[in-house]
Design a protein that fits this description.
KDPG/KHG_AS_2, alpha/beta, TIM Barrel, 9 strands, Aldolase_TIM, lyase, six-stranded parallel beta sheet
Length: about 220
């Protein structure tokens, strides 16, 4: 059984590494209307951002994610705000390529360690990171990034945990994203500034594409 879980962990790590190469900036998306899902995803892909996080924060979220998976094959859809093992099953059933959580309970980590779906648990402390690593998860979400200590915190964690890789989310914006990405233990950043609720409600797809292009250029620089 231990060997089986180890093999799953290696497979998940490889899949996740491949996914994260698709883009170091992950738009964190909250959709209130299913009809906005496809044009939003198309706008982000047009701007160079393929790796998306659809949060399970609204009643429309699951159907919106399903619509993007069905109609925008260029997009790589992950399900965020995964809080329970049931949420993880739901993400896999939708056809998500990966899943993310703002935190991680023992039950969720146990379920994720038995799943083939690449999963990024959330951590805010060294103890939480140790628990994630013990369950085989080397890539974690640092959340809430700025409130939990910001860049100095990740620099400090690099010492005792050189094997850990981070996707900081929470307080990341166009002004500081490049500073986070400059850290050697950061593989990607997540943020909602690229597709704000106001822009989505206004269906300002051209604005969102322009923000995506700007984020890609900043990350590359």
């Amino acid at each position: 059984m231990t060997q089986d879980l180890s093999a799953l962990a290696v497979s998940r790590d490889r899949q996740l590494a491949d996914l994260l190469r698709s883009g170091p900036v992950v738009p964190v998306i909250t959709l209130e209307r299913v009809e906005d899902a496809v044009p939003l995803a198309q706008a982000l892909v047009a701007g160079g951002l393929r790796l998306l996080e659809i949060t399970l924060r609204t009643p429309a979220a699951a159907d919106a994610a399903a619509a993007i998976i069905r109609d925008v094959p260029e997009a790589i859809v992950g399900i965020g705000t995964v809080l329970t093992p049931k949420d993880l099953e739901r993400a896999q059933g939708l056809g998500a390529r990966y899943a993310l959580s703002p935190g991680a309970t023992p039950d969720l980590l146990d379920a994720a360690s038995r799943s083939e779906l690449p999963f990024i648990p959330g951590i805010a402390t060294a103890s939480e990171l140790m628990m994630a690593l013990t369950h085989g998860f080397k890539t974690v979400k640092f959340f809430p990034a700025v409130a939990a200590g910001g860049i100095p915190a990740l620099k400090a964690l690099a010492g005792p945990f050189p094997q850990a890789r981070f996707c900081p989310t929470g307080g990341i914006d166009e002004k500081n994203a490049k500073d986070w990405l400059a850290l050697p233990n950061v593989v990607a950043v997540g943020g909602s500034w690229i597709c704000s609720t106001a822009d989505i409600r206004a269906q300002a797809w051209d604005v969102i594409t322009a923000k995506a292009q700007k984020a890609v250029a900043a990350a590359q620089a």
